[in-house]
Amino acid sequence: MSASPAPPSRRSADAARAACDVIEMLEILWERGRDTASAVSASQLRVLYSLERADGINLRTLGDVLGSAPSSASRLCDRLEALGFVERTPSPVSRRELTLRLTAHGRAYLSELRSRREEILLAAIEAMGPASRAALLEGLNGFRNAVAAEGSTRSRSAQDGSARQA
After folding, report:
1. Among 88, 113, 124, 162, which one is least packed by beta carbons within 10 Å?
2. What angle do CA 32, 100, 64 make, to 5 degrees?
3. Rounded to whole angstroms, how far apart are CA atoms 59 and 72?
4. CATH: 1.20.140.10, 3.30.460.10, 3.40.50.300, 1.10.10.10. Which one for 38-127?
5. Distances (CA, A) of 49 to 15, 107, 120, 122
6. What is the DSSP letter of 140?
7. Contact status, residue 44 vs residue 79, Cβ threshold 8 Å
8. CA dist., res. 7 & res. 12, Å (int)
9. What is the pLDDT of residues 19-43, one digit of tens each?
């Protein structure tokens, strides 16, 4: 019998709700700063980010990263390829596979997107007082560290589980 996790504290629950509100505000800000002529969907943007981190992966791996079937990942790549953001090339490992890569245009799009987002965030953060900015920085660093620690804990647990099954 496994012990159930302790319920979140009131402050943790309040912080989680505030983070959700901030995420929604960021989504609105991103929409305002979006270049509608070359905008991609959120799912397609995930593909671009995934390929930026793991350039040269195949559709099956991309599907695993996205949590979707390779056929769904392929459809996402269709428009990105039509926009010139992604290219599919034969795999050097298998004739049956295609390798997915970001094009220079795709990399430039992500760079420009990040620059626009940074400008939007900078304007909002500049409107905050110095104490609020310092608290935001401390909170975001703490959040990033907690997520990274949780990710490494899950990774170790998955590896331990795989080792036990072997």
Report:
1. 162
2. 80
3. 9
4. 1.10.10.10
5. 27, 10, 20, 22
6. H
7. yes
8. 10
9. 888 888 888 877 776 665 557 888 8
Contact 66, 46 (CB under 8 A): yes
Report how far residue 87's alpha carbon sits from residue 73's, in angstroms, rounded to the nearest whole number: 13
pLDDT tens string 133-162: 999 999 999 988 998 888 777 666 655 655
Write down the residue that tokens 């500049």 correspond to: 126
The per-residue DSSP string of 102-162 comes to E-HHHHHHHHHHHHHHHHHHHHHHHTS-HHHHHHHHHHHHHHHHHHHHHHHHHHHHHHHHH
110 is written with which tokens?
A: 């992500």
Give CA–CA dist 102/84, Å, rounded: 9
Two tokens at 147?
């997520």
Can you say how many angstroms the Cα of residue 58 is from the centroid of all Cα atoms in its chain? 18
φ and ψ of 57, to 5 deg: -80, 165
